[in-house]
Write a structure and sequence with these properties.
alpha/beta, 60s Ribosomal Protein L30, Chain: A, five-stranded mixed beta sheet, four-stranded mixed beta sheet
Length: 259
């Protein structure tokens, strides 16, 4: 359950690590949030354009695409779970949004997991109350479990690959060296980090480490996904078995995953 903390998380922030994206929808606008382990931060808001009929099909199409464009940086950073919250007439809009994503943005369906909840997520106070509810925590846990399953499948596939197309790194030192080589020689020579995965225990122990801070900054600038999972989640448990930290590097000629 997110709560305020004096502890400074990765990136020099007291927010903690990102857990899920939250989209609050009503008849007039969308409000985007990122739920962190210790807080919630608003990511932006988008107004629904109106015509004389109160919003045309074209308005909704453009509105949904604008929402997706605004959420892409969140997903690119490593967040793979989205909760769509709506109340009243916003419920129909939320359903339309999910249909739109599945119809026009199939790649998102492959890379993120979505769920919906009947709740108000339009204001800071509403969201602070929402994230404390059992309904929200259950919905979030369910969608993260789906994401976690996909991550474990990907990780195990990379670990068992014998083609030489992937390299698995298990320490901050190795990951730092990979980024240094990448900056000097380019991805053709050394491959590209695809995912950096860590457990909440590892993150808690290293969150003030300058080395982790540096790697997080490099990953963000390079578009590498960084994800923290609790050890009681499937992906977190698997990463814990490997020492708490894993970086998947894709070598030249290999296609990166869509997760």
């Amino acid at each position: 359950m997110p709560e305020r903390s004096r502890n400074r998380g990765s990136g020099g922030s007291p927010r903690g690590y990102a857990v899920a994206a939250l989209l609050g929808l009503d008849r007039h606008r969308a409000v985007l949030w990122v739920v962190h382990s210790q807080s919630v931060k608003q990511h932006g808001s988008i107004d629904l354009p109106k015509d004389r009929d109160g919003g045309s099909e074209g308005d909704h199409y453009n509105f949904f695409n604008t929402i997706i464009a605004a959420l892409k940086p969140v997903f690119s950073s490593g967040v793979g779970s989205l909760v769509v919250a709506s109340v009243g007439n916003g419920g129909a809009l939320a359903n339309s949004f999910v249909v739109h994503v599945r119809k026009h943005h199939a790649y998102l369906v492959r890379s993120i997991r979505m769920t919906s909840i009947a709740a108000d997520a339009s204001t800071t106070n509403a969201v602070k109350a929402l994230v404390k509810t059992q309904a929200f925590q259950t919905a979030t846990a369910n969608v993260i479990e789906q994401e976690s399953d996909s991550i474990v499948q990907l990780l195990d596939a990379r670990l068992s690959d014998d083609t030489g197309g992937f390299t698995i790194l298990f320490s901050l030192e190795e990951i730092g060296q990979c980024f240094r080589k990448l900056s000097k020689a380019g991805q053709v020579s050394v491959g590209v980090p695809e995912h950096i995965l860590m457990t909440d225990r590892f993150w808690a122990a290293q969150k003030n480490s300058p080395r982790l801070q540096r790697i997080t900054d490099l990953a963000r600038n390079a578009g590498v996904k960084v994800r923290v999972f609790r050890e009681d989640e499937k992906a977190g448990g698997r990463v814990a078995q490997l020492g708490g930290l894993v970086c998947i590097v894709v070598q030249r000629g290999q296609k990166p995953s869509r997760i």
